[in-house]
Amino acid sequence: MQEDLLKEQLELEQEMQDLGYKRYFSQLEKLKEAGQTSQAESSKYVMQNYVEVITEALDVQRKKQYGTRAKYLGLIKNLDSNVCSFIALKCVMDSVLSKEVYIVKLARQIGTKIEDQIRFTHFNEYDPEFYRSILADFKRKNTVQYSHKHRVLIHEFNEFYDWNHWLPDEQLNVGVKLLDVIMKSTGLIKRVTVGKGKRMRSLVEAEEELTHFINKVNEGKAMLSPDLLPNLVPPDDWVDIYNGGYLTPELRRMNPFIKGYNKAHKKELYEHNKVGSYDRTLDAANIIQRTAWSINLEILDVMQKVWENDLRVGMPPSKPLEIPPCPLNRDLKKEDMSEEELLEFQQWKYNASRMYTEERQRVGKSASIVRTLNVAQRMSKYKEFYYVYKADFRGRLYPTAPTFNPQGADPAKGLLRFSESKCLGVRGSYWLAVHGANTYGVDKVSFDERVEWVKEHENEILQTAGDPLSETFWRDADKPWQFLAFCLEWRDYCIQGNSFRSKIPIAMDGSCNGIQHFSAMLRDTEGAEAVNLIPSDKPEDIYQKVANKVIQVLEESDEDIAKEWLELGITRKLCKKSVMTLPYGSTQSTCRDSVGEYVRDMKFSFTDTKKAMNLLVPILWRSIGNTVTAARGAMDWLKGSVKYINAIGKPYYWTTPLGFKVYGGYTTYESNKVKTELCGQLILTLANPTQEINNKKQSSGIAPNFVHSMDACHLMSTVLNAKNITSWAMVHDSYGTHACDVDELHTCIRESFYEMYNNNNVLEDYKVALEIDYEIELPELPETGDLDIKEVLDAEYFFA
Fold first, then answer.
1. Less Cβ crowding at N or C end of the chain, within 10 Å?
2. Looking only at Cα atoms, what is the longest distance across the chain?
3. What is the DSSP string of 470-509?
4. Percent of residues, the chain, with pLDDT higher than 90
């Protein structure tokens, strides 16, 4: 049996490569059908190498002061040659690699887009704030379609500005001239004449050399893009960062344990691998990837029916959203509308725009659901399967198979359960109940109150387990699919009692985990209390603490807009994203974006929205800082230290308490960025990076990278310190195992954290190592508070 599975695994790994190959060319075909071949990696490579060649030839042509073509080039005299070359070559790559194209049509398309570039550049110069707001709206709605962005910008432009439109002859001749420059300077395309007499037409075709090069690059890219799936047999243990995981040499070569992001980093990895610096990390990964998984067949059956019937429970609509037709006559102009008609039109336009955005988002989310269901259906015929794990450069562990894995979204986690079953026992039934309350959203009260909530709602839970499609109780849960999986196990527990053998992972989640780490580093008592590092009768809610401080400031304000905020409500949800992302490098600007997103989602209406945002965002930002002073202080110190390291042109690095060396040597590339208003941007980059450190990346990356490496260290330490736990469902700030093993996990989480920060001063270790190695003096460390880190051992809501 094992030999059969081994053979099937080897066949599956070959299939992963074949599926990736097919997927790559399928995506390429879709780009061709959409006329967007320039978006393919192979086309980008061509453009990176030829835009500057075309630019040089165009500059020569621009210096010529004679002939009709010189006259037409005068239309683009104020437009950067790199931009002209990029737009023209992008149009060429979109056309000649997709279909047969007439030279007149392609030339006119180039001329039109060049004119658009000039027009929208003027728009940006005349009213930059309004222009940027339109582009920000495109970004927020994930609008990428050129034609849609073009329509919106043209409409807004025409509302305020006059434009002397180019004549068709001018558009054509600008395009023809640019095509001529491309043909003569690159040899990428050629002019071909077809037909005879009056039927004779000129086409543009790719030269054979270009076609051959594109095909060769695509072939190579396709071979390196496997569609990774779960394993049918336990992955090979990682013996070093190059050997382990998948069984076949091809997949191993493409999926090392850690991928280097530049030559210097690859060299660091190689050297540290030789001396065993990653051994403890590999041990932890091996333990996690030995966990056997299986599909919850009841959940799979319900999920497929929910998806097929478009019931929209914890997932996007399965069918496309229909944008309602305009209620007014399409020929009716705005200036001819009555006041009621204008109001009706504006309401329709708002709804149509919102639905267009929702449909774009639905398509992306639907693809994840479809993949989740397809992979789950495939894995459902196996008794058990496994996941290969890898680490990023900070030591964070991830399954290699995307989307459908233990770190996936709620539907994936609801479908997955351990293959191994374990008897609940009295304590297991307690933690199963806590898990049920947690997944429903009842997680801001004590554990005992969560258990009591389950008992109070046992009828609804059992009815849900009996007929999920008819019952609605579970649909309101925070995590409906994990809650439904709980309901099914609670049903079986009610029948079998404590002897019931449970399979679903019971997760313990950190409280704003990044701030937990920073509070421990600087022994910050106030921050520690806010994120449950010290004992309490029930869990503290840092998001509500911040919300309360915001409310207090608003109540003391005489501003009318403050009263509007208070009437609409300052909730923990409004504050959550800004607080949660603070340890990972968020700024007041990103805080403003989060508040703006919340305002739009809640459809809040103010007398002056800009004034409302200008009032609230600084208050919220200060309230966060006043709640977690140590986190802000540690982040500021880390960023400040990088200034000294950048000044000598060196990379930062540190070693975590588990021995994992994090290397931050971001380097710059010799590049020239070409940015257009609508055609996107191209970074013209030489193949090899420079040795120069990218100061901006080092500065922005230090704080999130540092805290991510520490949460990775804590996770792996927990795994290594546990004695009796055999199955692991591990996310960076959420640790899961069988219900009967939660007591051990709960204790081990706290003990590992205590050992990590009691035995190590990670900020001082980082400072001393760099000062000795680089012979520099970094700023003094921030002052530490009076937190007794030993208190975390009794903090039962630290991970809850």
1. N
2. 94
3. T--GGGGSSSHHHHHHHHHHHHHHHHHGGG-EE-S-EEEE
4. 64
pLDDT value for 686: 39
Q: What mean pLDDT is predicted for residues 75-103? A: 88
Of 618, 627, 665, whose CA–CA distance to 645 is shortest?
665
Question: In a 10 Å sphere around its CB, with 0-12 CB exposed, 13-18 middle and 19+ buried, how is residue 218 labelled?
Answer: middle
Among 503, 294, 290, 299, CA closest to 385: 294
The three-state secondary structure class of 617 is helix
pLDDT of residue 153: 81
**Mean pLDDT on 594-621:** 88
The pLDDT assigned to 728 comes to 98
Q: What is the 3-state secondary structure (H, E, C) of 350-385?
A: HHHHHHHHHHHHHHHHHHHHHHHHHHHHHHCCCCCE
Tokens of 656: 């975590």
Dihedral of the alpha carbons of 534, 536, 541, 546, in degrees to the nearest 10: -70
Catalytic member of 116, 541, 711, 733: 733
Ordered DSSP codes for 193-215: EES-GGG-EEEEEE-HHHHHHHH
CB atoms under 10 Å from CB of 215, counted, come to 11
Tokens of 161: 């500005």
Q: What pLDDT was estimated at residue 69?
A: 58
* Residues 149 and 681: beta-carbon distance below 8 Å: no
Tokens of 393: 């450069």
381 is catalytic: no
pLDDT tens, position by position, 256-265: 999 887 788 8
Eight-class DSSP state of 165 = P
What mean pLDDT is predicted for residues 601-618? Answer: 88
Backbone angles phi, psi at 239, to 5 degrees: -95, -25
- The pLDDT assigned to 687 comes to 41
Alpha helices in 648-761 (DSSP H): 695-721, 742-758
Q: Which of 576, 577, 741, 767 is catalytic?
A: 576
- With both helix axes pointing from N to C terminus, report the angle between 458-466 and 480-496 in degrees, rounded to the nearest 10: 100
Average pLDDT for 498-508: 97
Distance CA 391, CA 663 (A): 13
Cβ distance 720 to 284 under 8 Å?
A: yes
> What residues have CB less than 8 Å from 566, skipping those under 6 apart?
551, 554, 555
Q: What's the pLDDT at 781?
A: 96
CA 552, CA 529: separation in Å to the nearest integer?
20
Residue 407 DSSP class: T
The pLDDT tens digits for 647-656 are 999 999 999 9
> Would you say residue 677 has pLDDT above 80?
no
Residue 729 DSSP SS3: strand
**Does 509 qualify as catalytic in the annotation?**
yes
Identity of the amino acid at 111: G
Q: Name the least confident of 93-107, 412-426, 429-443.
A: 93-107
Q: Give the whole-angstrom CA distance, residue 430 versus residue 242.
A: 43
Helix, strand, coil abundance in the chain, percent, nearest 5: 60, 10, 30
**DSSP label at residue 791:** G
The active-site residue, picked from 509, 593, 743, 765, is 509
Instruction: Please determine, for residue 678, whether its predicted confidence score (pLDDT) is greater than 70.
Output: no
- Average pLDDT of 133-154? 76
Q: Confidence class of residue 675 from pLDDT cuts 50, 70 and 90? A: low
765 is catalytic: no
To 10 degrees, the CA torsion angle through 297, 302, 306, 312?
Answer: -90
Render pLDDT for 326-359 as a digit per residue (tens, 0 to 9). Answer: 888 877 877 788 888 888 888 887 788 778 878 8
DSSP 334: G
Beta-sheet strand order (sheet of 201-206): 101-102, 201-206, 189-194
Tokens of 742: 């939660």
Give kind and range of the element (H or E) at residue 101.
strand 101-102
- Report pLDDT for 67: 60
